[in-house]
Every structure is written in C-alpha cells, then in structure tokens.
Write a structure and sequence with these properties.
Radius of gyration: 20 Å
Strand content: 5-15%
CATH class of the largest domain: Alpha Beta
Oligomer: single chain
Mean pLDDT: 88
Structural class: alpha/beta
Distance between the termini: 56 Å
Number of strands: 10
CATH architecture of the largest domain: 3-Layer(aba) Sandwich
Helix content: 25-40%
CATH topology of the largest domain: Rossmann fold
C-alpha cells in the first residue's frame, strides 16, 4: 500500500493565501473599501491578489491614485492600461488640483511627497472610504515594521503606533466610528524578494522602468536621479547616461534609480537576493530628511 505524500504549501502560496484572506475579511467588515494603485510593483501585486480573491466576479471596489503630478510616464501609461483592462473605477486625487484650489501650498523645493497627505485625507473624506488597501511591507522601513495588518486611523487620519490593536490568531478588528478608517496592508509579511518571486510565478507584466535601461541621470548624495522636467541640473552638476533600473516608484522628483544590468525578472531576483539595503533606503530621497521621516509622515496621515 503506497503512502500518501504529505501536503505542503509553498512559502509564496502561504503569503498569497494570507493576503487573499485579509482582502476578503475587509469586504466582510467594511462598507466602502478602496485599493491604492499607483502603478508601482507592490500595488500591481495587490491588484493581482484582488483578482484572485474575488474571481470569477470583478474586483468589488475602486482603485485610487494620489497623483502628485510628478510621475514617470511609463508608470502612468501602465496604470491606465491595467485599470481599463480590468474595467475598474479609478479615482484620481490630484495634488496639482489641490495646489490650484489653495488646499495645499507647494513646498519651496518643489517636491510634492509631503503635501500629498492632505490630498489623500480629503479624498478619503469626500468618498467616505472606510478601509484603504496599501502595499506597504514591514521589511521596507522601520516605521512600517511597527504596522499591524489592520492599521487604525482616527477621525483626522492620523496614526498612533501606541494605539494599535492586537492581531492574535489572524483575528482582525475592523471596528471604527464614522469618520475613522483602517489602513489595510495585505503585503505586510512579504519581502521585496517575495514580491519579485510572485511576479515571476504569476508572470505579471510591469512598467519598463523596473528593468535595466539607459537613462540620463545625475548623482546626488550617492543616488542616481533621472534628469527630467522635475529634476534639473544644479550649478556645477553634470549628467551622464547610465544603465539603471528602479527598485521602487514614487514621486519622480525624489525617487532615484540604481545602477543595474538586470533586464529580466530572473536577473532582478538574483540582484535583490544579493542586496543588503532596502529599496527605500537605496532610492527614496524623502526618507533621508531625518531618522524619523517616515514615521512623522505616517502620524500625519501618510501610508
């Protein structure tokens, strides 16, 4: 009599199952969820998980992009194609419109990462969203490592790391009063390497800037920023064309590329497996303002 082989679940399958469970739990507990979708790799993976969570039905909530106006063209093109292909409702919360209306004031340095927070909070209030899916992961940054899967935000959209709820045995408490909301992070337990392995497994297409390509860049503080309409050369600076790719995609005025020859998914996986610096630490100028830059923004309402 042959013995039955033990049933084993792979690491990626376990992560996928956890994330899908969280998404379904949100649909059971909340009235007006929304998924933050920028066209970046983490939100792309979240969108694939949402497809699987509710198939064969359509994804039952809209997606929202907090648009700083400082975007990579390749990412916006991908965002629009993906949304159209899935027949989703895209809500765009525009920082430029908020500046034009006087809701926020542009910073002297021209960057917009910080001023997108009040735009996000205004959109949450306008559309009465009570649960917001975000692609943050605990391995990215120390403030995000403090997050729960369900992250409670008060009526002002603010985050208090000392006032979060326990999540024993994967039990998630979504209780909230009108005006309050929950930020939900289905990828909390994923790493950058897990994300890339999943992209390979699911054969998920990505914007081209995630792979090695030639681009005109300028080096500042050890990071390579693309020279474009948002980043101009300063006195004494020179640009050069280098072979680079983007590990993360954010505000084009504050997101740097890394030198790379990884032009395929497998090469990117090998590269990420060998690195010892997180993607935000290596590429995000907005996180270098201070040691607590991310936590300060999260307390104000940022993701």
């Amino acid at each position: 009599m042959s013995q039955t082989k033990p049933y084993r679940v792979s690491h990626l399958d376990a992560l996928e199952a956890e994330s899908i469970f969280v998404m379904r739990e949100v649909m059971a507990e909340f009235e007006r969820p929304v998924l933050l979708f920028s066209g970046g790799k983490d939100s792309i993976v979240m969108l694939r998980l949402a497809e699987k969570a509710f198939a064969p039905a359509r994804i039952p909530f809209p997606v929202m992009h907090v648009d700083t106006g400082h975007n990579f063209a390749e990412v916006l093109e991908y965002r629009d194609q993906r949304v159209a292909g899935l027949g989703l409702n895209l809500v765009v919360a525009s920082v430029q419109e908020a500046i034009d209306s006087g809701h926020v004031r542009e910073l002297p340095d021209g960057t917009r990462n910080r001023i997108q927070t009040p735009v996000l909070l205004a959109a949450v209030e306008k559309y009465r969203f009570d649960a917001l899916f975000g692609g943050a992961r605990r391995d990215e940054e120390k403030a995000r490592a403090k997050e729960r899967m369900f992250s409670f935000r008060d009526e002002f959209g603010q985050w208090d790391p000392k006032n979060q709820r326990p999540e024993l045995w994967a039990l998630y408490n979504g209780r909230h009063h009108p005006g309050e909301s929950i930020r939900v992070f289905p990828l909390s337990n994923w790493t950058e390497l897990d994300v890339w392995h999943y992209i390979a497994k699911e054969r998920i297409p990505l914007p081209s800037i995630y792979y090695a390509h030639d681009r005109e860049v300028v080096e500042r503080d050890g990071m390579f920023y693309a020279v474009n309409e948002f980043i101009r050369l300063r006195d004494g600076e020179t640009s050069e064309v280098r072979r680079v790719r983007y590990r993360t995609v954010g505000d084009a005025s504050q997101t740097a590329a890394v030198l790379s020859e990884a032009d395929t998914v497998d090469k990117v996986i090998d590269e990420v497996a060998a690195t010892r610096i997180t993607e935000r630490g290596a590429t995000r100028g907005d996180d270098k303002v201070s040691e607590a830059a991310m936590e300060d923004r999260k307390r104000e309402g940022y993701f």
